[in-house]
Give the backbone structure.
Amino acid sequence: MKRFSLILSLLALGLGATPTLTSCNKESSFVKQQREFDEAQKQRDETAIQAYLTRHAITNAQRLESGIYLVPVTDGATTNPLIVAGQTVKVNYVGRFISEALDGQVFDASSNNRTACGCLSFVNGPNSGLITGWSTATLQMRKGDRKLILIPSSLAYQGQSSGAIPAYTPLLFDMEILDVQ
């Protein structure tokens, strides 16, 4: 009987296992601040990417729904199918900054990978261990393609630094698809 009255007391105080309905209808201040920060960061990234395209007089960029921009440099054979998740992709790449202050500065390149081909192979998809922007962009490419890929920070290293790359930095990759299996 004591236990039953304790449960009733807790429920009366709103401390039971059932959440109050008002908690579902309100956005916590932390969640709201994070959402507002993310929205502002997406706009900053879009502005930085647009500024890069303008500085370099690039007019043939294709914007994906994700916010990634693809600029064709060389097209592979149109008979080659688009890459799909789960395929092993072999690429040559050079990663560069796009901000005006660091415009064009290289932060990484496949030639530094100490492999026989000087390239990088990965299984395309969300569990590739690579930034999300790579998996998303390569789904729009085929063997033989070479494209400039401008990636917003939300699909790169959003809230974390990665060596020479500061957090919240949109990036450019000059990527060539060497092989797809």
